[in-house]
Task: structure prediction
Amino acid sequence: MDRRSFLKNMGMAGGAVMLASSPWLSAFSETENTKKEIARLGIIGPGSRGQFLMSFLKKNAKVEVVALCDIYQPSIDGALKLYPEATVYKDYRKLLEDRRVDAVLIATPLNTHFQIAMDAFDAGKHVFCEKALAMTIADCYQMYQKHRETGKVFFAGQQRLFDPRYIRAMEMVQQGVFGDIEAIRTFWFRNNDWRRPVPSPELERHINWRLYNEYSKGLMTELACHQIQIGTWAMQNIPDKVMGHGAITHWKDGREVYDNVSCIYVFDNGVKLNFESVISNKFYGLEEQILGNLGTVEPEKGKYYFENVEPAPGFLQLINDIENSLFDSLPFAGTSWAPETANVNKGEYIIGEKPTSDGTSLMLDAFVEAVITGKQPEKIAEEGYYASVLCLLGHEAIEKEQIVPFPDAYKINYLNHKITA
Result:
């Protein structure tokens, strides 16, 4: 769904409810008034992810990428194919001195996010920072507070916040369509070693930074950061504690981060959010499953299912006949292996169509609108903050092999965390 179609749909009946569940969409409220405006961006870290984001920015007539910064020349060469007129810097601090730059997009390795973002805020720039925000909870907190102090726009790379499937799903969840949320299951499975080709041995840690503890928290910051945020968005609540486990079971190739992890986050009402990731089996792919007592929604698949869908009578009769022929009588409780609803309930598409995008384009368009207007969309910085903090808290629980409570020192005024001091 492109920006024009999305904005048109927002104007239809139900738009107010949509804004209530996803208030950051207010970034688009002045889109008609900003038609002739330009946001001038600097890209810090135009590698594979940075260039992916730039490919969407290129389609937005309100964007001009005026500066690029990277220490790896192949990344600069690729970025210049998209924006050949951009000024190139090797030192991001020089880019921040460029007065043409209104805002920066940070897509560097995780261990560099904090200092770059803090310096950017101090330089008077608006900031888009890829997730996770930082390597430590304390640094995430400082980044958020710096955003508040400077009043500059602050986005984290949580594209599901702008995915039409997720927006509509959360609208339905918070309207009670699926009843009370009883559990949330999330998983992200792949089957690859997560390595990239290295042209020279001394570049191993530079290119494959995600595999080493000095630069990365592995699966928790790279994948869990997306899916845990879905849980807090659906619950409108922040979990109280987390427990977890991680290991290297398959890719024993010198990496330091785990190749499989599992965490359980617990909310104050007893509801649990599970996250699991294995990167040596891809059969089940990725999904978030929000389970209510009246129905289930799978936003990534773009579908929802109600509980009261019954299997076809003819199919149940077939099962009865088979069991009768095998055992001569029905089991005490009826058919013992009659399939549950999932086997026969085909569900409905959330937005009436098969999903085709993940919200990245709309997220970047919203950032551009916010940069032009200078207005921070409501609640998006807070969602980004908690997504990063919670994935880091999960990593801490894995490392300590303990139940870790959410630390009071890093709570902000959002959802069930109400700070009075």
Q: What stands out?
A: Residues 3-159+360-377 form a domain with the Rossmann fold fold (CATH 3.40.50.720).
